[in-house]
Amino acid sequence: MTNVNKLEPLRTVLFESEMFEVVSIEWSKTIISEMHSHGWSQCHVLVQSGVFENYLDLGLKTETAIFETGQVISTPVGSQHELRCVSDFGKTLHIYMPRRNQSVGRKNFRPQMPSPLLENLNLGEASTFEQTQKILQLVKNESITTDSVFFMNQLFSGILPQAILAQDIISKTRTTLATLEASPVFSAIEQHVVQSLGQLIGWADCEGVNVPGGSAANFMALHCARQQKCPDFKRTGFDHRKFKIYVSSEAHYSMKKACMVLGFGTDSLVQIAAHENGKINSASLEIQIIEDLKNNFEPLFVCATSGTTVHGAFDSISELSVICNKYDIWLHIDAAWGGPAMFSEQLKEKMKGVHFAKSLTFDAHKLFGANLTCSFFVTSQKNILIEANDVSGADYLFHDKDMDRGKMSWQCGRGADAVVFWTIWKNVGTQGLSDFVSRLLKVRDESVAWIKKQDRLDLIVEPEYLNICVRIKPHSPETLNWSMIAREKLIDDQFAMVNYSKDKNGPFLRLILAHPNLEFKHVKEILSEALSVIGPA
Amino acid sequence: MTNVNKLEPLRTVLFESEMFEVVSIEWSKTIISEMHSHGWSQCHVLVQSGVFENYLDLGLKTETAIFETGQVISTPVGSQHELRCVSDFGKTLHIYMPRRNQSVGRKNFRPQMPSPLLENLNLGEASTFEQTQKILQLVKNESITTDSVFFMNQLFSGILPQAILAQDIISKTRTTLATLEASPVFSAIEQHVVQSLGQLIGWADCEGVNVPGGSAANFMALHCARQQKCPDFKRTGFDHRKFKIYVSSEAHYSMKKACMVLGFGTDSLVQIAAHENGKINSASLEIQIIEDLKNNFEPLFVCATSGTTVHGAFDSISELSVICNKYDIWLHIDAAWGGPAMFSEQLKEKMKGVHFAKSLTFDAHKLFGANLTCSFFVTSQKNILIEANDVSGADYLFHDKDMDRGKMSWQCGRGADAVVFWTIWKNVGTQGLSDFVSRLLKVRDESVAWIKKQDRLDLIVEPEYLNICVRIKPHSPETLNWSMIAREKLIDDQFAMVNYSKDKNGPFLRLILAHPNLEFKHVKEILSEALSVIGPA
């Protein structure tokens, strides 16, 4: 729909305050509201007469529906909508709470410092609730606008109405997932999301648990692998045996942390050199394993990455699974970022053989827009979670021995994070998640085609996923840092927030395509601006 | 304020739908609204004429304020209020969004099974946003009502408007605490809460970080202690050295999990028998340490509990600190539940010597009503968090080397949990948190006095804190289980949810006093009902 007419002349404000606003609007068939949200205010529209078509943009999907006299059109927090009168005349009553404002499209990628807010963080004296609300509004305004399409810095972007709705329920039910008794519904939801992920992977049966972040999921994988190989260690701790854990040199740093925290030591971690495209060199891995076996190390664990942080590369799971099978090694897939490939017809080939793995990390807070953090550890190895994590000594808490999900975790009290991803998935459907990936792949393809035509830009690698790595071509040793300089300027100018990384040729920009409303034009705008802030070649 | 007159006759509903409701009310000086909330709907009242006094119950505190013509009275989600006209006449316009309902006071401690909801959890097909909202409403209704004063099952109860407000901001700003760049304000807030806790403890300087739950905080403590004692282990992992970790037999089971996960093995954990009152026997601890040293173990870590889960007992920190000092052992305080004692004039003696400890666990989601989870690990040992947790290999992420808080954690992406506790503390003030503890202690004292007068009830131990352990006296071996039977009946009848534990004489009830609106009458009602469901002695 396109804009036909502005609505302002027909608006009558009935009541008005900072906290709410009631507006009556008279419509005719020629009038369409522009696509708009109301900042973060709730909005409800009562159709007093006439028939209206409402186009609702819910981030990962859109809905169009017809509303007649007496019905209410609700625009959930975080969404946008466009309203059109399809009868000759119509009348609507609009309520905004708080008053609608124009925060949408606002960009804040580098707050001005020193901020007066930072001087007001002190705790001690009480304040009124109104003062507290005001300071939180300031907190919001001075925070990075990760809801902007120009926020491409992290492996997440955008804020979904489904996630806000789900988190609202979590706030209002405040309970712990540790026991079935305290969270019967949430326990069932967590279990259901885990089973659904297991089905997608292709496991006949599986277990899993929400964990606080992808790093925690990777830890859990190594922890379970150790439990399976050395059941006694739970009781005795490490003995003289020395293990080796393998990842690619492009893997997430959390495996290194896992080796450190779990007591293996970072020396146990072997980083196998990746190919230039970011994928692990499977042949090198096998050579290394043979070498380690000769030196009396025990190869315990291989972590394949599906979607590396920098290049978005996918290790070949099929190749790795053959090796792991041969040497009896636990194969884990870190699909924190790339997991959504399993939902996509176009990408699922990249994770071929995933069902051969024993466990997988999936972050719903990355591409799929859940709250931070909403991570899952799932495993095909029945009972390993309880074997690895359950201890005696909590009989005061765990009365339903077979059902309490706390026994599968090393955490005790846990929030109901799973509800957020469940809500998103429930609302959008499996097909909707797949379509979302496809839409972004299309943006990627258009962007890559355009980049290749630019003399001053170098595509670092043909992207497999939703990471675009691109360098502003330096023309002398002094301009090697151009990509980094441009990145800082884009942020300083509140234009866009993209990240950078480095390879042997110096820094390059990394753009993450994750925002539901992202279009090719945004990528083009950002890269054009990056070139322009650098100045002529 | 007491109820003078009902308002119904003067209410005029102007607009009405499931999603919102606009009501006009005419007042005179004799009219007071009853104390009420609006379920979970937002409510704003515009004063059209007259002068009103609004009494607002915000859980941990109340506010009274005068509103005049043109001003708006807002009742935040999760609060209750009472409105009174102080002028001769007045007129107000009320907006509820969604429509107000009577969910307050609802109790659901055992959902009816099988629930139709559980058959509708399946993921696959998309649903409309309206359907999604409806199913989430069902999720809410079938969840345990932890906001009820009769929910005394867990170490938390009640839902605060401050927490809901703060979580709303977290939802709408969705970012990670890992880097300063992505969360400049939240990083400052986390740092500020940590410093404020450190001041309360009495440390000249401190460091700390939000962790996902009290168990995770205890893990971090042991992890830091290992790092300080064996800096090489980070790289090499465990060698032949064998350590001992000490807790009381009444300590939380998370220390056992920590020994297991971190690779020490649960055999490393020594549980020192507690006195009957639940406090650790310090003399036994020292004897055990001497014995372990003789056997070539290295005593590494003592975890003192401030507020045990069952009895609410406080270990003597002063005694333990002398021992730890003597044998060069890291002293950690698990104050997940009892930490609020530090805020209370009446209780702070219980944690005397806390500043001698090297680290402390504090859960703001327990007594102080933050979201699950909102836990802090704080330590007096500067730099130990970075030494223990930082690894190379994340240069793509950590650009602000000195400030990125992710380097102090083994997590990568982390939610801004600290904002919830900061908001509560900011709104209520240090004095308000102290007053809250005092109010509950008064409820406890009245309850204990009453219990002691009941022939059929046995107080298990004189409570130090907000746990009341009480047994329904059995009169034969067959009735040993009376406390447990009563507990199940209270739940089945949707009357109350209390927990139970066991000692050598059998099961007993554990009532946790944590709800902001809890009064002695509620405790009396629950215990009277418990006796009545058992029947005559």
What's the short story on this structure?
2 copies of one chain form a homodimer. Chain A has 537 residues and is an alpha+beta fold. Helices cover 31% and strands 22% of the residues of chain A.
How would the blueprint of this fold be written?
Two copies of one chain form a homodimer.
Chain A: E1 11-16, E2 21-28, E3 42-49, E4 52-57, E5 62-67, E6 72-75, E7 80-85, E8 89-97, H1 129-142, E9 151-152, H2 161-173, H3 184-201, E10 207-211, H4 214-229, H5 233-236, E11 243-248, H6 254-261, E12 269-272, H7 282-294, E13 298-305, H8 317-327, E14 330-334, E15 359-363, E16 375-379, H9 384-389, H10 418-453, E17 457-459, E18 467-472, H11 482-492, E19 497-503, E20 506-512, H12 520-534
Strand content of chain A: 15-25%
- How many strands appear in the DSSP assignment of chain A? 20
Mean pLDDT of chain A, as a whole number? 92
Helix content of chain A: 25-40%
Largest interface, by Cβ-Cβ below 8 angstroms: which chains and how many residues each? Answer: A-B, 150 and 150 residues
Structure class of chain A: alpha+beta
H/I helix tally of chain A: 12
| Poorly predicted parts of chain A | none
Order of strands, main sheet of chain A, comes to: 10-16-15-14-13-11-12
Give the biggest beta sheet of chain A.
7 strands, mixed
Rg over C-alpha atoms of chain A, rounded to the nearest angstrom: 26 Å
Distance between the termini of chain A: 41 Å
Oligomer: homodimer
Question: Which outline of chain A best applies?
Answer: globular
